[in-house]
Amino acid sequence: MSESGKSDQQDHENMLTVMAFFACGTLIYNGFSLFITAAQDILAGTYIQSSMVLIACILPSFVFTLIAPYFVQKISYFARFITVGLALLCGLLILALAEQVYWKLIGLGIASVGYSMSEMTVLGLTSFYREVALTAFSAGTGVGYVITPFYYTALTTWACVSPQIAIVIMAVVSLLIPACYYIMDKKHVKPPSPSSEKHAGVEYTALDANKEYECEELDSQRDDKNNSRDYHLSVQEKFAVIWKMLPDLITIYIAWFSEYLVYVSIVTTLAFPNAPFSTRDHYQYYIFTLTGGEAVGRSYLVILSYIKAEWAEKAKIPCLWGLAIIQVFHLLFFILAVWYRFLPSVWIILLLSFSCGAGVGVFYVNAVAVFKVKFEGPEKEFAMGYLIVAIIAGELAAALLGLYIEPVLREHCTMILNNTGLCFTRSHSSYRLSSSCHVDNSYRVEIPS
């Protein structure tokens, strides 16, 4: 192959590989989005706090992502993707087919570990490829975030399909994640050393012992840098990377805490009597618009790069603190809107849900870009996988606080409104496999013992 041909191969990723990273992002965030979108149906017929779904989803994956970076690099990528596929299939089938709420939550926890492992694995894998792989993955996460709310809302609200059937379909689709790995170029698998071919025909001269030792030392140091994929960080080095990441990790925590508290504990208590859809459907539309905004936010750099490459570079926002503060303002406004009920129409909430999602989407794509530039070699691989810890920590904190916030907001609503049915965006009877549309005007609720 000519030198120009080799250069082109190095400058461009295989299109199938780029598509595989995009598909991985889409499929992984299909799952995360599904858990939130289906939260009210998972807990239908109970007054269990909505954030229990998030806790069951986040707590197992948080523990996993907290400890996994210290050992997961020793496991082959093939083994990781097979484990991901099995965990997702088992977890989603339990979630869909179990009748007791606690079994649904167990299945959700198993699936969430699978999705977290897959995101950590794919983010680490991007360190072996050019930036287009990471960009494709980020764009895919945005698409995944919006596809599932649309899919779930369309099936369960418009087509009257059972939530259980919708989740079973997702279980089968999740097996495409290992398939995506299969079609990628395996750049992380080190090829045979070309040194023997490279130096063939070169005449060697003897060196004295001291010079030979110095040359070996220099070669060893150079190899450690150039072949960093074979080098594993020590525990002390990993803590050093985390310390360097800490300011940005705090902003990630704040942004995700604000977003998740909004839609697992605040908008769940806000419905409007003049809305053109039922009380239960309010939540589906809130999630649909929020994730739609997040899809736009996560994809904006890709869109700009296709219009003009220079625009994408100029549109990057390295100041993550500013983006985090915007999310805090969204959170405060939603709290005031629910407490004082001063908004006249559901359309204003839907617009704000879209802007909240767009803000966190923009935050995500800029956060991964910051870490991509800040670190190199094995540090980059570790950092790209570890940023998910801050995301999950923010989500978990929001879920724990939501156990207290949602009942308080719901009780306050029942004290100031005559129509208490507007205080909870949840169906009041458990769904069944044969259920169709969620038309339920009764308010009989199964109180868990």
Characterization of the model:
The protein is 72% helix and 0% strand. With 449 residues, the chain is mostly helical. The protein contains 17 helices and no strands. Helix 2 runs parallel beside helix 7 and helix 12 runs antiparallel to helix 16. It comes from Porites lobata. It is a multi-pass membrane protein. Pfam families: CLN3.
Please report the distance between the alpha carbons of the first and last residues.
71 Å
Q: Could you report the average pLDDT, rounded to the nearest whole number?
A: 81
- How many individual β-strands? 0
Q: Give the overall shape, derived from the CA principal axes.
A: globular
What is the percentage of strand-forming residues?
A: under 5%
State the secondary-structure class: mainly alpha
Unreliable segments (pLDDT under 50, ≥5 consecutive)? 1-10, 195-200, 220-229, 432-436, 438-449
Rg, Å, rounded? 25 Å
Tally of helical segments? 17
Major sheet: none
SSE series:
HHHHHHHHHHHHHHHHH
Helical proportion? over 70%
